[in-house]
Amino acid sequence: MALHITGDSAADTLLTDNPLALLVGMLLDQQVPMETAFAGPLKIEQRTGAVDAAAIASMDPEAFFEAFRQTPAVHRFPGSMATRVQTLCQVLVEEWGGDAAALWTTGDPDGPEVLKRLKKLPGFGEQKAKIFLALLGKQYGFTGAGWREAAGDYGVEGSLRSVADIVSVESLTKVRENKKAMKAAAKAAK
User: Fold this and answer.
1) Is the dihedral of CA 171, 176, 6, 135 positive or negative?
2) Domain 1-100 top-level CATH class
Protein backbone atom coordinates (compact mmCIF):
# COMPACT_ATOMS: atom_id res chain seq x y z
CA MET A 1 0.00 0.00 0.00
CA ALA A 2 1.26 3.44 -0.94
CA LEU A 3 -0.75 6.64 -0.85
CA HIS A 4 -0.59 9.17 -3.69
CA ILE A 5 -2.46 12.19 -2.36
CA THR A 6 -0.12 15.18 -2.48
CA GLY A 7 1.95 14.76 -5.63
CA ASP A 8 5.05 14.98 -3.40
CA SER A 9 6.68 11.59 -2.91
CA ALA A 10 8.20 12.47 0.48
CA ALA A 11 4.87 13.76 1.83
CA ASP A 12 3.02 10.73 0.44
CA THR A 13 5.57 8.34 1.96
CA LEU A 14 5.11 9.96 5.37
CA LEU A 15 1.32 9.61 5.04
CA THR A 16 1.72 5.97 4.04
CA ASP A 17 4.14 5.10 6.84
CA ASN A 18 2.84 7.22 9.71
CA PRO A 19 -0.83 6.89 10.78
CA LEU A 20 -0.60 10.12 12.81
CA ALA A 21 0.55 12.01 9.71
CA LEU A 22 -2.49 10.71 7.83
CA LEU A 23 -4.84 11.69 10.67
CA VAL A 24 -3.27 15.16 10.93
CA GLY A 25 -3.53 15.60 7.15
CA MET A 26 -7.24 14.85 7.40
CA LEU A 27 -7.61 17.31 10.26
CA LEU A 28 -5.92 20.02 8.17
CA ASP A 29 -8.16 19.28 5.17
CA GLN A 30 -10.44 22.29 5.35
CA GLN A 31 -10.35 25.60 3.52
CA VAL A 32 -7.14 24.64 1.71
CA PRO A 33 -6.51 22.36 -1.29
CA MET A 34 -6.33 18.67 -0.36
CA GLU A 35 -2.69 18.41 -1.42
CA THR A 36 -1.76 21.33 0.82
CA ALA A 37 -3.54 19.81 3.81
CA PHE A 38 -2.00 16.38 3.41
CA ALA A 39 1.48 17.85 2.76
CA GLY A 40 1.18 19.61 6.14
CA PRO A 41 2.49 16.70 8.24
CA LEU A 42 5.78 16.69 6.28
CA LYS A 43 6.20 20.43 6.92
CA ILE A 44 5.50 19.82 10.61
CA GLU A 45 8.11 17.05 10.70
CA GLN A 46 10.69 19.15 8.85
CA ARG A 47 10.17 22.14 11.14
CA THR A 48 9.76 20.41 14.51
CA GLY A 49 11.53 17.10 13.99
CA ALA A 50 8.41 15.16 14.96
CA VAL A 51 5.23 13.56 13.70
CA ASP A 52 4.68 11.76 16.97
CA ALA A 53 1.63 12.44 19.16
CA ALA A 54 3.50 12.61 22.47
CA ALA A 55 6.20 14.92 21.10
CA ILE A 56 3.71 17.29 19.46
CA ALA A 57 1.38 17.28 22.48
CA SER A 58 4.23 18.33 24.77
CA MET A 59 5.69 21.06 22.52
CA ASP A 60 5.53 24.66 23.60
CA PRO A 61 2.36 26.00 21.90
CA GLU A 62 4.08 29.20 20.79
CA ALA A 63 6.98 27.29 19.21
CA PHE A 64 4.53 24.92 17.51
CA PHE A 65 2.57 27.90 16.17
CA GLU A 66 5.80 29.41 14.81
CA ALA A 67 6.47 26.14 12.94
CA PHE A 68 3.00 26.39 11.39
CA ARG A 69 3.51 30.04 10.47
CA GLN A 70 6.81 29.68 8.63
CA THR A 71 6.58 30.29 4.88
CA PRO A 72 5.07 28.39 3.24
CA ALA A 73 2.57 28.09 6.08
CA VAL A 74 1.31 24.65 7.04
CA HIS A 75 -2.26 25.98 6.75
CA ARG A 76 -3.89 29.30 5.83
CA PHE A 77 -5.07 29.55 9.47
CA PRO A 78 -1.82 28.68 11.26
CA GLY A 79 -2.88 29.69 14.78
CA SER A 80 -6.15 27.81 15.02
CA MET A 81 -4.86 24.78 13.13
CA ALA A 82 -1.68 24.51 15.21
CA THR A 83 -3.90 24.49 18.30
CA ARG A 84 -6.17 21.84 16.77
CA VAL A 85 -3.25 19.58 15.86
CA GLN A 86 -1.79 19.86 19.37
CA THR A 87 -5.20 19.20 20.93
CA LEU A 88 -5.69 16.15 18.69
CA CYS A 89 -2.28 14.84 19.74
CA GLN A 90 -3.08 15.43 23.42
CA VAL A 91 -6.30 13.39 23.07
CA LEU A 92 -4.39 10.61 21.30
CA VAL A 93 -1.84 10.51 24.12
CA GLU A 94 -4.49 10.54 26.86
CA GLU A 95 -6.95 8.11 25.30
CA TRP A 96 -4.96 5.98 22.83
CA GLY A 97 -1.45 5.84 24.24
CA GLY A 98 -0.25 8.23 21.54
CA ASP A 99 -0.99 5.67 18.80
CA ALA A 100 -3.22 7.07 16.05
CA ALA A 101 -3.61 3.62 14.47
CA ALA A 102 -5.14 2.36 17.73
CA LEU A 103 -8.31 4.18 16.65
CA TRP A 104 -8.85 1.53 13.99
CA THR A 105 -6.87 -1.41 15.39
CA THR A 106 -7.48 -1.67 19.15
CA GLY A 107 -10.08 -4.30 19.95
CA ASP A 108 -10.55 -5.32 16.29
CA PRO A 109 -13.29 -2.69 15.75
CA ASP A 110 -15.87 -2.73 12.98
CA GLY A 111 -16.61 0.25 10.72
CA PRO A 112 -19.33 1.81 12.89
CA GLU A 113 -17.07 1.64 15.96
CA VAL A 114 -14.17 3.33 14.13
CA LEU A 115 -16.57 6.03 12.91
CA LYS A 116 -17.72 6.58 16.50
CA ARG A 117 -14.10 6.83 17.69
CA LEU A 118 -13.19 9.29 14.93
CA LYS A 119 -16.18 11.53 15.68
CA LYS A 120 -14.98 11.89 19.28
CA LEU A 121 -11.71 13.47 18.08
CA PRO A 122 -11.38 17.25 18.15
CA GLY A 123 -11.93 18.66 14.67
CA PHE A 124 -13.64 15.53 13.33
CA GLY A 125 -17.33 15.98 12.65
CA GLU A 126 -19.60 13.49 10.91
CA GLN A 127 -18.42 14.22 7.35
CA LYS A 128 -14.69 14.33 8.11
CA ALA A 129 -14.97 11.11 10.12
CA LYS A 130 -16.78 9.36 7.26
CA ILE A 131 -14.23 10.53 4.71
CA PHE A 132 -11.35 9.34 6.90
CA LEU A 133 -13.05 5.98 7.46
CA ALA A 134 -13.44 5.64 3.67
CA LEU A 135 -9.75 6.51 3.25
CA LEU A 136 -8.82 3.81 5.77
CA GLY A 137 -10.98 1.24 4.00
CA LYS A 138 -10.20 2.12 0.41
CA GLN A 139 -6.48 2.77 0.70
CA TYR A 140 -5.07 1.99 4.16
CA GLY A 141 -5.97 -1.66 4.59
CA PHE A 142 -8.78 -1.32 7.14
CA THR A 143 -11.16 -4.25 6.70
CA GLY A 144 -13.52 -3.90 9.68
CA ALA A 145 -17.01 -5.16 8.98
CA GLY A 146 -19.45 -2.53 7.76
CA TRP A 147 -16.90 0.17 7.04
CA ARG A 148 -18.40 1.03 3.64
CA GLU A 149 -21.89 1.42 5.09
CA ALA A 150 -20.56 3.47 8.03
CA ALA A 151 -18.67 5.73 5.60
CA GLY A 152 -21.90 6.40 3.69
CA ASP A 153 -21.53 7.77 0.17
CA TYR A 154 -17.76 8.12 0.71
CA GLY A 155 -17.47 4.34 1.03
CA VAL A 156 -19.00 3.64 -2.38
CA GLU A 157 -16.44 2.05 -4.69
CA GLY A 158 -15.36 4.43 -7.46
CA SER A 159 -17.41 7.33 -6.07
CA LEU A 160 -14.64 9.93 -6.61
CA ARG A 161 -16.11 12.07 -3.82
CA SER A 162 -13.13 12.72 -1.56
CA VAL A 163 -9.48 12.24 -0.71
CA ALA A 164 -10.34 8.57 -0.11
CA ASP A 165 -10.55 8.13 -3.88
CA ILE A 166 -7.30 9.86 -4.87
CA VAL A 167 -4.83 7.30 -6.14
CA SER A 168 -3.25 9.27 -9.00
CA VAL A 169 -3.08 12.69 -10.65
CA GLU A 170 -5.99 11.64 -12.88
CA SER A 171 -8.19 10.63 -9.95
CA LEU A 172 -7.33 13.89 -8.16
CA THR A 173 -8.64 15.80 -11.18
CA LYS A 174 -11.81 13.68 -11.26
CA VAL A 175 -12.42 14.16 -7.52
CA ARG A 176 -11.99 17.94 -7.95
CA GLU A 177 -14.43 17.98 -10.89
CA ASN A 178 -16.96 15.89 -8.96
CA LYS A 179 -16.71 18.10 -5.85
CA LYS A 180 -17.17 21.22 -8.00
CA ALA A 181 -20.26 19.69 -9.65
CA MET A 182 -21.72 18.68 -6.26
CA LYS A 183 -21.21 22.22 -4.90
CA ALA A 184 -22.85 23.72 -7.99
CA ALA A 185 -25.81 21.34 -7.69
CA ALA A 186 -26.21 22.16 -4.00
CA LYS A 187 -26.08 25.89 -4.76
CA ALA A 188 -28.64 25.52 -7.57
CA ALA A 189 -30.97 23.61 -5.26
CA LYS A 190 -31.11 26.53 -2.79
Assistant:
1) negative
2) mainly alpha
